[in-house]
Amino acid sequence: MIATLLAACLVLVALYLVKLIVQLRRNIATAKASGIPYTIAPFFAINRLYMLSCIFLLPLYRLLPKPWTEWWVDMTLDWGWTRRYEAFATMGADTFLVVSPERIMMHVAEASVINQITTRKTDFPKALEVYESLRVYGTNIVTVEGQEWRRHRKIVNPSFGEKNNHLVWKETLAQTQDMLNGWFGENKERTGSLRTIADDAMRLSLHIISSAGFGVPMVWPGSHVDGKTAAQEPKFINGHEMTYTDALGSLLHNIVPVIALPTSLLKILPFEFTRSSYQSYLEWGQYMREMYNDKKNLILSGVEGDSLDLMTSMVKGAGISSKETSTSPNLTTTTTPSLSDEEIMGNAFVFILAGHETTANSIHFCLVYLALNIPAQRHLQRDLDTTFQSRPVSEWDYDHDIPKLFSNMAGAVLNEELRLLPPTTQIPKKTERHSPQPIIANGKKCTVPPHTFISLSPHCAHRNPNQWPHGPPADPDHPSHPLSNRDNDLEEFKPERWLLSPGSTSNPPATTNNNGAAMNGGPTTDENDTSPDTSPQLYHPPKGAYIPFSDGQRACIGRRFAQIELLAFLAYVFSQYSVELCVEEWADDEALAKMSAVGKRECWEKAKRKVDGQMVNDMWSIITLQLRKGFIPLRLVRRGGEVFDYR
Ligand code: HEM
């Protein structure tokens, strides 16, 4: 009996292997015919089972000879970050296929191919399977394609107009001031070692999206809003077990189980983390529903005032307006919005998710990079002095000051940070099952096979020496990355690469508004927004070479929201303060004060090497790319009180 069972199992395994071999041979033949360089892997890198197995089996896979594993081990979601351009250099092609029995995957770091893919939206739709799990509260703009996506985008787009950007500017300045008050305390000239910058940046961007997104002000612990402190934050209505702040904080803290596990499972699993995940899911959902109904009622009664937040605009955009009250007194049953309640909730959730970690990371890493690059920091401060001319922050003006910030070192720092550390390690596209697509890749006519999973790699495209001007590395003995771009400076933070010589301007911005539609000849869904995304005074890379926000019609809708937030943050902080590496591991303040200039420099260099190592080894992505181990010790000092000032 056992022998029969074993034999049956063996036959099944053998049949399965034969099937895999047949599929692999078929996929290899397809790849060969495509004209695109290819390599072979036993697994489809983003197969969930394979990715799960990596948690346990990766150390074993790594024992196999490198040539056997080079194109699949470690080539899961994060590989664009870990290997960077080195993989393309090794392959000798900026677009290549990895063929597995399950599916063909195409990796792209080639600007012109990225441009073809992002502009031919119907031929290369978004690979929605990657985003399935984001339907936590309902279908939303990220989880749909085609006509459905157009409907969402049309309604959501006006929310991200200039009115909202004014609010983002104002709110960022206020929230940054609160954060710095917390860091400095009373009358201090410099902070101690700031160990929670990454968390504080998260809190900062969460407060901004909460206010500019939903009209819900959140206050820093200890600070005051309308006479209330954070501790007194009112619950939205009775019946909640958490405050709004706690519910949102807990939801984001538990975001991985919340999006990875079905809510029905979260509800019944007996673990502490699943219980708190489910609780925060319920609580925040409840707050959102209340907020939504509140806004709907205000709009319907015609007393919503001039609220500028995303949620109010979305509710209005969904077709709910005060006019309807006259014809339909029953507010909720007779209004048929073009986004359902569930879809509005779904979009509210992705705004928070897409809009908070991404910008928080940039805030954190702008500080880190500027601490590592003191001349760039001083340049930024000089440009801010010229922009604001000693005007107090209360007199800063969005319309007057933002165009200047976009076109000087502040814009360059923002662009350079997002060149080196775009928060997403891949932008997933695909070809449909029966739809091979002609394309020009690696300079020749090719065909992307049907049912190919396409990974546009921002990290690799942004470091591709074939499409970015570059110079020699600053310090060839200490390369910024052990494998990638060792013979050039594309791994280095050099915001100056974006600054054009005085008097010259670059090509017109490739995208002209924040819905990314204009350059495609596609329909522009927000006719009112003509604000440029980047300044003509800054360098414009070839189309497709720079894609932190993706490109084409499905580019990030929150691009300008994020840019305004980052520029306001940089302006507020660096107009008054400098950021420095904390060298406490090597010398305390007293020892530093007595140290010679050479000794101080040595300390600084040691701290820098350590941070360089952390930025290579201790970062990986869970949703977005972040420092996941330890912290980078920095501190802020009032300008003029710097300990380190190297040119
Ligand atoms: C530095 C900040 C940000 C970066 C680098 C960024 C990057 C991106 C990228 C790469 C995409 C395309 C994803 C894909 O196609 O797979 C995207 C889409 C999106 N982003 Fe952002 N994002 C940022 C900030 C924001 C903010 C602040 C919001 C909202 C407040 C936001 C909302 C969205 C939404 C709703 C989409 C989906 C758009 C669509 O499919 O039509 N993002 N973002």
TrEMBL record:
Biased composition annotated in UniProt, kind: Low complexity: 501-525
PROSITE patterns assigned: CYTOCHROME_P450
Chain sites annotated for binding heme: C556
Gene Ontology molecular-function annotations: heme binding; iron ion binding; monooxygenase activity; oxidoreductase activity, acting on paired donors, with incorporation or reduction of molecular oxygen
Biased composition (Basic and acidic residues): 475-497
InterPro entries for the chain: Cyt_P450, Cyt_P450_CS, Cyt_P450_E_grp-I, Cyt_P450_sf, Cytochrome_P450_monoxygenase
Entry protein name: Cytochrome P450
Gene assigned in the entry: CYP-62
